Amino acid sequence: MVEASESPCPPPRPQGPPLEHSRRRLCAAFGVLLPAVLLGVPIQAWAQAAATRPGAKSRPPELRWEDLVPKDWDPGKRFRDRNVQGLSDADPKVLQLMRELREEWDNAPTRPELDGAAVRIPGYLVPLEESRGELSEFLLVPYFGACIHSPPPPANQIVHVLPARAVKGFRSMDAVWVTGTMRTQRQDSSMGVSGYRLEAQAVEKYSAGAR
Fold first, then answer.
1. Which of 44-48, 88-92, 151-155 has the highest mean pLDDT?
2. pTM score, two decimals?
3. What's the half-sphere exposure (Cβ side, CA atoms, 13 Å) at 191?
4. Cα–Cα distance for residue pair 135/204, rounded to 1 Å
5. Which end of the chain is more exposed for a tag (fewer CB within 10 A), N or C?
6. How far is CA 129 from CA 145, 150, 158, 162, 183, in A?
7. Are residues 59 and 8 in contact, defined by beta-carbon separation less than 8 angstroms?
């Protein structure tokens, strides 16, 4: 199991080119994405840690992606007895497993205690509504290529961001910091199902030094 870091995680490095086959997507889902979302840490933990950092009084607590996942959620439980090794991409068992996995992830639970919390979180930007170079709506995801070059992550790993004012100067997959009020509200979009909504007061280019 992946261990959570002591400090908020910066957006991960790019994951490489898009996966080409459904079986490879399954392996990536179980081998890479699931371990990353199995962790859940108490809200008090990150809030207390953030309170001790320089500038904490002027900024909301920094939220990690692990903090969005309920501690007792185990998305892999119902799939542990499945074995797709040696099966072709077109095998009905593989296709059915893909459908079940997508359903499980789209209905991933959120943490109700985050509703209404003032937060600051880093991630990658996926445009939803853009006009004349200004973004009025976008998704925030934890790893490069999510929702574009790879299957969408679980709903509790996708944040639907609504800036107070349209923002400009950003492109798809830019790494950003978003500050605002978190809501536990599910939203279906062309890029994936989000389990959270973030009413953003600020959207900034990501910089490790800006923590």
1. 151-155
2. 0.71
3. 23
4. 13
5. N
6. 18, 20, 16, 10, 19
7. no
